Structure formats: structure tokens, C-alpha cells
Amino acid sequence: MELFRWCATSGNISFGHDVVREILQQNPVKPIWDAIFVWAAATGKGVDEIGRMIDIMESANPSTSDSPERRQADIATINALVEYAISKEDPYMAERFIALGRERGIEPDAKTYGLQIDYRLSVGDIDGALTSYKNLQSTDVSSQEDVPTVNKLIVALRSSRRHDFDTIMNVAADLSDRRARFEPQTVTTLALLHLDRDEVHDVTDLLNTHAYHFSSAERAGIRDALVAYCLDPQTPLARTWDAYTILREIFDELPRQPRTQLMSMFFRRERPDIAVHVFNHMRSHSREDTIPTIDTYVTAFMSAARLKDLESLELIHNQLKLDFNIHVSTHLRNALIIAYTACGKPRKALGFWDDIVASREGPSYNSIHVAFRACEHAHHGDIKAKEIWEKLRKMNIELDRTLWGSYIAAVAGQGDMRHAAEILAAADEEGELDVDEHVLGSLFMGTPNAVKQRDVEAWARDKYPQVWASLMEKGVEELENEARVLKGIDRSVAP
Prior knowledge:
This is TPR-like protein. The protein is 69% helix and 1% strand. The protein is built from 27 helices and two strands. It is mostly helical. The radius of gyration is 37 Å and the shape is elongated.
């Protein structure tokens, strides 16, 4: 058989034919005939032609039926031909070979039905595969050869979304009764099926039964599927929490990155209380690849900032104070400034700016921007902003247009639009600054209310008509408090 396979794949057809002719002169035994039939199929012979070749083989049999030299096509003959058809991805040919066997009184065995399930699944004929499976149940399956294919069938039944729960579970129960191996993908499929039915105990039992027998890579596949289920925004929140609880219980090795993704997801779904639980589970873990890093804290603080949720921010900040594994960096303090400013505590946020200034690492450009943002919202923050600005000037820090924008917004944030406009005009006249859309837009959006914004608009129309007209062309969005946001200006800050 291996020789014929080599001849077929390497293109040595002529040599293969020579070998066949030589073998046929020696009255070959039946297994050799089976290989010759597969060779014939590989060289283009049709099903009918192979049927005639079988007739020739059987016609050369001795007259006595119990002769050891007697050669009769059997299910092994048919299965070999079906396997060849599957290797060529030709399910129609495979069906014809099975039909050929039936015409000769050769009924399929467990291997045949297993092959039939396999190739029917390969073309998406799930109903046909299910029919083959039902036929399989009436055969001897003690060899367990069909188990990998039945595993594939369970996955396909679930994926099709056309077969009911009982149908899928009946197939799974059959495997369980036979004490057969459940493949990782099968376990994943059944776990998600139970989760969709809120059958949490069944998921736990399933995973406790099978997951600990898998390799690390196989466990990771199941784990990743459960994480993806949690991260799917279509998954109801209660089920997401159930799935996370199962992940934490059974997959203790779940590393930091997916845990952080799960924490962020709960923040996005406006459940900061649950997000804090996920963070605390990381914090209390013992594995080096699981405990929070600076990036984990930054992600948590920025998520709390987006929600403006002071409680979750303070809870996680308290954990940071107790975390001796973390060296508090400028990057981390920047995130704290952003978060406390967003949560209505800009004065506290400015305390972290003072910590940054006093630290060995010192401030980054992002630090300056976020400090000005805190000044913009803090009571008398304009005084602090001017203090920072004077220090920057004395240190000969390059003051680009983005820093000017942040500074002007900080001055205007307390409603002193007139002073902010004077600073801007003076810088323009002295050649320190070329007033552009970003600077003018920052002044407008830093102004705290609609009344003051109208004053800015009137001043800008008069002083910088072309720049203002360009801003208006990009559009304006009105907020609930009647203040307006310029669509063309990005004032987001990053740690």
C-alpha cells in the first residue's frame, strides 16, 4: 500500500502499473488486492470499473468456499476505498463506494459509519452525519475508533444552532456511558451550551470531570473560549459573572492579561463593583504572572475615570498603597491625576502632581497636560496653572501648541475667559504662539458653561475669524447643560 501511495503522489504511475502487473501474476492475497483497488481509484478508475475488478478477483477463487486462498471483498475493502475518497475530499465518491459494498451484500461497520460521519461533516451535512451516527449505534463500537469523529459531531451539532439541546446531550451521554475521551473542543462546546442555559453546576461538573486530564495547551483552549464568552457584549451580565466564577475556580492558572481584560469589560458594562472583585482576585493571587503590575493599576484607574466612579477608584487606590510589589512611577501617578479629576476630586489629583515633581523620575509631557486638566476643574485651579506655567518657562521647557492649549483651558476653566483671552492674544502678538484650531478650541471647551462659551465665540469670531470658521465647519455637539463640544478638537489626555 505504501509503495502504491508513493507512486501516486510522486507521479510514478508507469512504475506503479508495472508493480501491479507483476503482483497479479503471483496470485496475490486479499489485502494486496485491497491495495490494488485503491491504486486503481488513485489512477482514475471509476467506481463501476473497480466493481468489475472485484468481480475478476472473486472469479479467480478456488471452487471450494473454505479454501485459504479464497479472496472475497469485505468491509475492509470498502473502508479502504472510502478512506481514499475522503483523502481526495470527494464525499460523492465515498458514498458510491459504500453503495457498491451494499450492492455486493457488504454492510457498513462502525469504521464505515465513522468515516461517513467525518466526510458528511466536512461538507456541512450535519443532518446526514447525525443519521450516520444513529446507524453507528447499532454496530460494535468497542474499538473506540469512532470516538474522535463523534466528538466532532457534538461540536458541529452545537455550531449549527439547528439541533435542540436533547439531541446534542444524547450524543454526549453516549460517549460518557462508554467512558470515552471527551476532546477539549467538545468540553468547551458543552460548557458553553450549559452556560447558555444557566446550568452552572453542570458546567462545573463537566470541567471538573475532564479539564484536569488535559495538557496545559488543551486547558488554555477551553479557558480562552470561556474568556471570549465573558467578553462577548451579547452575553448577559449574570452569565458573564457565572463564567468568570467558573474560570477562577477551575482555571487558577488564568494569567494577568485575560483577567485584566475581564476587569475592563466589567467597567465597560458599568459594573465597577464587579470589576473591583476581579482586580482583588489578581491582587490576592500568589503567581508572578497573575498579580497586578503598574499597567494593571493604570487600566483600572483609567476605567474608573471613564465611569467617573469614585468608589472603585478609591478601593483600588487603597490596594496600591498596600502593594509592595509596585514602584509608583510617573506613569502611574499620571493615571491617578486623570482618575481623581474625572471623579470630581481635582484638588486631590493635584497632590499627585506635587509627588511627581518631588520624585526622582520627574514629570513627563503627559504629566503637564493632566495637571493642567486638574487645574481646569479645581477651585482656584488657574492660580496653580499659572504657577506650573511659570516653572516651565524658567526651565526652558519647549512649549508647543498642545501645552498652550492645556494651559489656556486651565486658566479659562474657572470662568476667567477674559484673562485667558488676554494671555492668548499677548502670546500671539509676541510671536510665542501661532493661534490655531487646537489652541482656540481648547479655550472654548475649557470654558465651564454655555454663557462663557458664547463670550469666547464672540471674541474668537472677531479676533481669529478664519480659524474659528474652520472649527465651525467641523461641527459642534451640544451637551445636556447647553455647553458645546467642538468635534474637530481632541482634548483627551493619556497617562
